[in-house]
């Protein structure tokens, strides 16, 4: 039972990544693989700053800006050079692998004995996990509110409309190249912030820590939507955060039941494949039932 | 008002799928003109419309509105002057957004979006007043998602959205073609009412000759990427479908079955 708080805190920390994935996958209607590069980029940028002795908040801000730049690059590749969004994301992701090594100077950067955002708030409690939970919850709440506000503004509405119907928003005088770049920028800023927080929570940044993050994000988004609904924008944001928490609970459970940790990514990928395919399978099943009933 | 001077457009030039869509089209519209456009499949009606809207660049010629050359403007920039309704009822609205959000976006057409709240409640009275004359009950459903509306309701809403920010030019691309006859009739009635009340300069493609004769003060017929017939005023008022077919045969110089004209 002492797993509860760590599981919750991991779920909340990673929900920032899930929010970023939600913004591209659902709001912009783009599957953006930049995530796999911008997550470790955020971790690398923040860690490099922290090692040089900068304030944890500054480090997170630097990570966010780095994530924005990554998003802009993918955005320009797909809008200005008309490279399909999926491929544009892959190109940025691959390029970022080298960039991340440059940022860290090596493949792995330890943050032990270094002041992080979590040690900053250690006055709250002696329990490190509880501090992580509180900081994670606060960060998630803040970013959710920011999201809700921004996507309710005129610019935010234009970005949402771009995802629903680019023809419509162009006919209403909005340059969709700009809204797509802007959407990718915000999404990757979120992902990089998540990377920065996870690195500080784990006590290290690693060049390989981005592998599979897109699938974790998608799993959280889909689990959240199925379990908690998508009635309005605020509800969607809350669903994604809760989806991330549920995902961590599921992972904790299967590990507890004895699944080897090496199989985690396989498990997550299968989970996402089933969740994505479920609507189609359900429709087919229903059609079959209907046919049989008609006989 | 609108000046189209010798424009031409060929799709996929130099390939096996090459299609000469517009050969050499010039057209001048006066302020308040309501022009109906007819012509068979591949006559170039939609290409003409999309050239004006800026969906793609033209190969030659120039397009200007009120003396301002917009030939090189991208689509979203031209939207400042041009309101559009598409044939596909799905095209003109954002299905996942509420009616009031769609209207709010349309009310700002051509303006730079800011960080102000997009759909403040203070808009609602105004939106209800705009929706009520449509008599579709939409004024009580401001918070419904547009995806829940029928094709006719969506087309009527798109029409309202296209006209609410006072465009200099309204482009209607067979906007009733995808609707059932009764709904099409209703949307067309709303169209003539809005255009008439606001004296909007309008270009309307239709596949229906009767509608083309009934609406507007001017009619053009396209054939093979050219404007073949252009009638206006009194002459148009007295025109009948047989007259139109006779004119077409004479102008095209060939005996053509009427359905190649009627069907599109």
From TrEMBL, chain A:
Membrane topology summary: Multi-pass membrane protein
Keywords, in A-Z order: Cell membrane, Membrane, Transmembrane, Transmembrane helix
Xref: Pfam families: BPD_transp_2 (PF02653)
Residue spans crossing the bilayer: 12-31, 57-78, 85-103, 130-151, 178-199, 211-229, 236-258, 264-281
Top-level division of the source organism's lineage: Bacteria
Localization (cell): Cell membrane
Family annotation (CDD domains): TM_PBP1_branched-chain-AA_like
InterPro entries according to UniProt: ABC_transp_permease
GO terms assigned for molecular function: transmembrane transporter activity
One GO term describing the cellular component: plasma membrane
Record-given protein name: Putative ABC transport system permease protein
Taxonomic lineage from the root: Bacteria, Bacillati, Bacillota, Negativicutes, Selenomonadales
Automatic annotation (TrEMBL), chain B:
Protein name from the UniProt record: Putative ABC transport system ATP-binding protein
InterPro entries: AAA+_ATPase, ABC_transporter-like_ATP-bd, ABC_transporter-like_CS, ABC_transporter_ATP-bind, P-loop_NTPase
Pfam families: ABC_tran
Domain of life according to the entry: Bacteria
Keywords assigned by UniProt, alphabetized: ATP-binding, Cell membrane, Membrane, Nucleotide-binding, Transport
Signal sequence extent: none
Bilayer topology term: Peripheral membrane protein
Domain ABC transporter: 2-249
A Gene Ontology term for the protein's cellular component: plasma membrane
Subcellular location, record wording: Cell membrane
SUPFAM superfamilies, A to Z: P-loop containing nucleoside triphosphate hydrolases (SSF52540)
Entry's Gene Ontology molecular function annotations: ATP binding; ATP hydrolysis activity
